[in-house]
Structures are given as C-alpha cells and as structure tokens.
Write the structure tokens for this entry.
Amino acid sequence: MTERLAIDGGQPVRAERLRAGFHGSSEIDASEVTAVTDVLKEKTLFRFIAEPRSRARWIEDWYCERLGRKYALAVSSGTSALISALMGVDAGPGDEVIIPAYTFVATAAAVIAAGAVPVLAEVDASLNLDPVDLERKITPYTVGVIPVHMRGVPARMDEILAVARRHKLWVVEDVAQSNGGSYRGKPLGTLGEVGCFSFQQYKVITSGEGGIVVTDDVLIHDRARMQHDAAARFWEESQSEPLYNFVISGENYRLSETAAALVWAQRERLGPILNQCRAVKARAVAGLAQVPGITLQDVPDPEGDCGITLTFFAPSAESAQRMAAALNAENIACGTVHDRTIPDRHIYNHWPFMMSGLAEDRRAPWKDPRYKGAVSGYSREQCPQSLDLLSRAIMIMIDQHFTLQDADLIVQAVDKVARHLLPQG
C-alpha cells in the first residue's frame, strides 16, 4: 500500500494547491490596455462609425483567415452567436433541434429564442454528443443538430456529420469552450454549416463578453447579420441593389469596438496558451494510462484537443466523490462533473426553464400549436447514460501556468488515491 492519504492525515503530494485560473484574462498586460485606450482616444466605440478601422471588422477578417471561412460576424456573446446562427439556418417554430445533455444552458436557450424545440440527446464517453443517440432522436420535425465541443475536447464529428448528411440536417457547431481546437486537422467551427465562438471571461481568449459566427454560406451570413443588427438595411442604403430579398426584424447583438479591441489584442495569446495546456495534458494522460481502476475520457482526436481539462472516470458515482475529495486533500483541485447537490448549468437537469414546468406557454416552443412533434416537456432523468457518465467523471482544469512537473504530480496523486480507494485487479 502506498503512503497514507492526505485526507487521512498523510503528506499531500503537492505543498500548495494546484488550481487553474482564467486563461486569456490572466495574460492581460499593456497590450490590451493600449488596444482599448486607442479606441477610446479615437472616440469611435461603434463599429459602423469606426470603419475602415473597425476592430470588429479586424477580428472578423482574422477569423476568416485563421479558419479558412468566407464570412465571419462579430457579436456580443456566445449566446447571441448561437441565436444569430440559428436564424441564419432558418430554425423556427415547429422545428426540432437536437442538442447534447451536457452543454452550457445557453445552447438550449438559443434554440428556444429562435422559437424551435430543443431535443436532448445523450453524451458518450467523450462527454460530447453521442452519434448513436443523435440518430435515435431524429423525427420528421428535426431540422438540425448542435454538436458542442465541451471543455476543449472535440466532438465525434465524422459520425455526427454522417448522421446529419444522411437525414439532411444542418449542423451548427458550438465552439464556445474549444476556441483553437481542431478535428482531423480541420479547425473546430469549420466542419458544419456554421461555427459559433465565445469570448466570455471563462474562454481561452476573452473580452469579458463577445462572440463570433463563421460560415461559408452567404445566405446564412445575411440572415445572421440581420438578426444581430435591427438596422442592418440602414447601413446598406448606399448600395444600388440589396444584398438579399428577405427581411428579418433582428435584435442588436453588435460587438462594441472596445470589446473587439480586447479580442484583437488577445489573438496572439491563443496559440501559446493552448501549446502549454496541451503539453501538460499530454504528459498527464500518458502517466494516467498506467493508473489502475480509472478510465480516461475518450477524446475523439487527441491532437485537436485544446488540453484545458483532464477528465477520467471512476467505477461509480460514490467512488468518484471519494476520489475527488481525496485528490483535493492532496492539493490537486478537481471535482466530479455531476453532483446532484450542485446546480451546474452545464447539465440539462439544471435548466429551470425546461425542467421546472414553469415556462409560460408562449415562452415554451414545445407548447406552440405550430409544433406537431412529440416533445411535451422534459424530465430530470431522461438522459440516464449522460448522468451516469457525468457522475463518474472527475475533471481537473488546466491552465497555461501549469508545468510538466505539475502534470507528474497530478499523476502521482491520482495513482496514490486510486490505489487506496479503488478495487485493484
């Protein structure tokens, strides 16, 4: 038996607590300050006044160049990116849109904001959308699917795209938590019809709030652009011909020039942050592969993984709770992904507007008379596979300040805890 666990009074493997912080915002220095103050000195905070020096336009051009997409639209948040994208693909009343049971609540909220009905599908051992359950959930009313690349890990896109093409569904990728990731050599956000990104505080690079929508389809782009700007036609009055033959009333999701300037200043930080996170995770994963009793998260494309989280499964929810408590005592900050006592808004059964039954009829698209499908409500236990996986999953957040030595200490701590608490074959 290895040395006594710290939770039982033994010596922890690390003298100080190893806990990840924010990625992009922790790097803020004079570059970001200068970028914002330059905008303030120019006194042009609104992108259409700032043209041709609009920072919003600069980051749109950067995303087109970086991702190889034809169109990009800077918006005020990841949620508004999803709503604009859903309007772009023309999702609306009477439609069903399949989403994973594990994603931030905004994914479901965006579907509802578009007037469509969210249909929950299970996640698999990648903790992303299960392609098998995706196909099971398709009905005559299904128009599209939103695969979410959760916590830096790419979804199983080959299989998801095959299902979508077979059933003629559009695909909107939610890349909010995996900016800079890839799948089979292709940047995340370029595999479906649309990709949606977030620059919120918790994301790899940040402007506090903000987002971007990318696509190769001019019609999708035009519809999304009208959704993000109630005055979209106003800015085009000087053109002899309109860019489109339809109208969407839209809402104002435009990104401010100050927020865009922050993203522009942070663009050089994306690669270095991810390079370090990936190196740390790769080192830890190699070591954890030898630890008895645990199962590592199934990452569909390890090379495309952002490396910002490290997840493994214990044999049961109870053993996961015990392991997480013991690892924290070893000064390795972690937690179980699903704990019924914590209302994590990344897990479907903690989405009150769907689970409480309190949504007013006019705010619940599944009660809309134009909807003819079978969804009449939602239950907290309707995705048992997802709840089982999430309750057994232990997640360690990684940031760019972790070292390879920290990776080794993570492995040492997990091995120590597993040998004490898990059955050994």
